[in-house]
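Budget justification aside, the reviewers requested a transparent look at the raw inputs and outputs of the sequence design task funded under Objective 1. We therefore reproduce one unedited record. The lines immediately below are the structure tokens for a 92-residue chain.
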């Protein structure tokens, strides 16, 4: 990807510099990665429950929506399972 710029004389020129897109991670991705690291390190064990979603939102200082999206990401990776009314548990 080349960058275009206008020089002092007003001419548009192609720069030889190449820019690459910056990949930023969303809040749910950061939360899910943090939990995944704890699963992989053994800090969180299969069958162990995660704190309630509202409590996790307070712990991470994020919105409840971000926590729910993070749990959906982990569920999609088959790292956790959710039992409605019971909680979120680390998968076996």
């Amino acid at each position: 990807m080349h960058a275009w710029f206008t020089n002092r004389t007003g001419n548009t020129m192609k720069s030889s510099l190449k820019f690459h897109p910056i990949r930023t991670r969303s809040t749910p991705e950061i939360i899910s990665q943090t939990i995944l690291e704890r699963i992989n390190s053994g800090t969180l064990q299969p069958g162990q429950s995660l704190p309630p979603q509202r409590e996790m939102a307070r712990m991470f200082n994020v919105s409840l929506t971000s926590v729910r999206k993070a749990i959906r990401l982990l569920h999609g990776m088959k790292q956790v399972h959710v039992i409605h009314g019971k909680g979120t548990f680390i998968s076996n």
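The mean pLDDT is 90. The CA atoms of residues 12 and 58 lie 50 Å apart. Computational costs for records of this kind are itemized in the attached budget.
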